[in-house]
Amino acid sequence: MTAVNQASFLVVGHAFAALMLAGCDQELAPREEPIALAVTALTGTSCGDPDAPNANPNPFAELSSVTVGVRAYDAESGLWETLVRDSKSLREGSALRLGRVPEGEDREVIVTATGSSGTWYGRDTGVTIRRNTDNTAAMLLTRMGGLSCAPMPTGIQNTIFPAAVSLGDGRVLVTGGFTEFTGAALSGASSQAFLFDPRTGTVEGLPNMGANQGRAGHAAVYLASTDKVVLLGGMTELGFDEARPFPYVLDPNRARDDYVIFDVASKTFTPGNDRMIARRAFPRTAVMSDGTVLISGGGMWPFDPSGTDQIACDFFDPEDDDGAGGLLDIPPLRSFYWRAGHSLTFLGSSAEGLSTYLIWGGTTPDRSLGHPAEIFRQSGRQREGVNGTFAEVAISGEVPPFSYFHETTRLSGGRFLATGGSRFANGSLQTPEADEAWLLTFNSEPAPVLQTRRIPGLGAGRVFHSALSSDLAIVSVVGGWGPSDAVQGVIQTFDLAASAWRSEDGAAGMTTGRGGHAAVLTPAGSLLLVGGEASAKTAAGQKRLAAEIYTPATSPVP
Fold it and tell me: Pairing state of beta strands 19-23 and 96-101?
């Protein structure tokens, strides 16, 4: 049985030292008030391979020293400043006290602890330090530079292609996915849903999404203005033909054009009242600055020879229908190119605060006028029926491939890292090629252009992987299939400053590879990995859900 070991500092775990953080400002010296550190760790039998679960170590039983620090962001320098920091050997048996922590909002509290099995890491963000009051920071201790298995109830099935999205309070909603493999298709689209709290490591089961609402390969978007989530499109089945270099085949009749809304406060699911322009499998979505959501692509790949529905985009408005949310009735909004298996990545905001997104790949040379990129610029009057605009982007540098089911990760300075994907060649998608990674640099003047450069070192080709960065400088590429079985090299790290890759195959707690999973960043900057399998051909059946947290070795320390 999986266990979550939780303790609150002052006294934590076994012989853990008492921790007191005093919050005050520099002008008035009130009595010292503690910050209560509610620290949790994942212990006991956990996931790994769901058929042969491993045991997480108990950090509270092994720690020998601890460091606590508080940081604040300096807007002038653009850097995080350590306000206070202290370390203590736990053998000393004395309290660790941090004095004179300036009052303020959006502080970070970071704990690192050393034990016999490695370094453990916890971070809470957005902490407010107030005078003469109780201040609480909550965090989950996870392996630094490694993986920690997250506890999952036995009643929650493992799935392939679930959706996961972070809510406003840091919890993660996970929905759907395939549960079966018949030999010819991934099927058994699940309607299960649950909440995972990355600050405590706990899971809360939810009512399912509703009758006939099972889906996989759908999009999940958090709507901050209404504290809801919209689940868009997806599939009820995905064909599998092992004779093809890229074996995944979509029957458009198995894709969905509907949506479901999850109300965070009431924890209920409600079917949408209208339908999208097109059926969309693996749709890509983008949230604009006004809270509306662009929905693009999601058709057959490499293209649908009998139709062009997926060249048109939908817009979802969370405030439509008196706050219930719905699709906007707008004039046709069409991208330049047909898209499926593309990426849609935030580029930046204009001087007026309007969002701009980069669209990459998911098209073919004869349908894209010769290059795979375009940008979307938001309209300031979308709710009035005035659409945003798509613009072509020229390519400068080495000619990149036309790829599908890659990941594009935003970095600093108008740069993006595109990883993996299946190339379009000879009229079809091919087996993913090794070392498929490209650095894209965007310039808007005098006309939109992307400078492209191949970045060798990623290793094995992969699709249906994840690639996330918490600092716009370090990217963690996790898992993926090549094209249907797990790649060698479960985690690869790209360092923008060095423009180089590093393998993390020696990371502590490493378990089997996975593809077709969902991944989100937690408030601590770790990666929550949910679902997926080592092979698309061994779908989960009745396995317990596989979930892990990966905390990069490059996570910030005070």
Answer: parallel
